[in-house]
Amino acid sequence: MKKLVSSLVCVVIALTLAVLPCTAAKYGNNYSEKITRVFSFDDMSEDCLEYASGMKIDKNNKKQGSASLSYTTRGEEDVYLFQTRTDVNTFKLSTPDRNKAALRFWVYISDISLLHVDDENDDDTTQGTMYLKIASNRFGGSKSVQWRHTVHKSGWSEIELPLYHGDDWEDDDFDSNSILFLSMHIKAASGLTFKIDDFRFVEKSADYTPNPAPENSVLVTNCDYNEFNTEITNWQGASYDTADKIEGSSSYRLDGKGTSDEYRFTLAWVKKDYIPIVIDSDTLHLSIKGTGLADISKVYIQMRLGPKTRSSEAGGGKSLVYNIPTSQLKEGEWVDLSIPLASFNLGGSPDKTTEYGVYLLRIVPYGSNKNGSYTVKFDRIYIERDLTSANVSALIASRLASIAASDAAAAASDAALLSSASDSSGSGNDTVVMIVGIAAGAVIIIAVAVIIIVTKKKPAAAAATDEEAKPDESDDKE
User: Residue 334 above 50 pLDDT?
Assistant: First the structure.
């Protein structure tokens, strides 16, 4: 009976939704949050959780309720602090709109130098990484999303990890309507005390429409916190700046140190929301502002391309890479940059005239001085399409022809329906069928004419193509 009651308590804690008021004025009057308190960690009675051996409750150092969950490493450890049980099915979270949802919680790190960073080649001791995983099966092996979140300070930090995130570790069949598994682990040296408190599931809402991209352009992001068309992966140092911006409600802000290139942000889209591009005709536009430019060697931009699924492309697929030199920037001033995609380095040999979908955009400033620090801000990012280029015109002509053929088929179908419904001796109905047939034929003729005109305007292809450059940065950089 005691175990049954404990299980029921766990279900109530994990599933009961509590709507909490949003007190942060920066979100505006039309912003709200619905918060599910998943685990309070006031005790260890949640029967749906498995804890690491040595886990304790700390009633003296906490952020909410009566206690926090605390663990101290006893040697060099790669330890799962907690995970939901795989032998019972008493844990579930659900959201229909994952790009408006996030995990939010508090962590305490006694000594950041003891928490290992995920980059094995990085000897920076001023930051460390924690790992989280959710899955739509209770065993956690597949249908999962995973985060590697880097923190650069000791003490308490409030962490928010959006479900609509930029980490490559995601299975295509993950279902945000049925989240049945949750785990958290760290890699650390001996003597690190790591605490967790107030684990919440947040669903956001805002009645907000971002400004559209210019004509003949596709909006990537206006960098607005309440935009919800994409989200910053919450690496330490990434935030929204509501005071310094080009337009809208905010800009993206990144505060970094020269000790590491782990200060970054990543934008990502679920595969149905790919940003379409054609390499040899499109241009990336963005606004950028940097302070402390003397401590930055470059700003690295990477785009990963579809149309394959995210999991199959991750780490080895097609990509575009570009390094913005600091000579193109002005200290403490906003600069508008226009970068033709044809000037990017190409990885995975993408075809320059094929329409791809961008599913990930990563921006990483590289520090040049280990004792230096910098701030880089971004705003108003969009792709401009050159509708006069041969390949884009051909794409448009092909789509027009497809639409025309579809319309012609529909007209023919309508004609057949009219014919079958008509009196075979009625000359008036024969006239109607003839008119519909003429209209269908006219649509096909117009489509063919469009293709002929575009083809004549297409410039001659170059006699030889340059060898495609290879990116000077690894596509596997996370």
Answer: yes
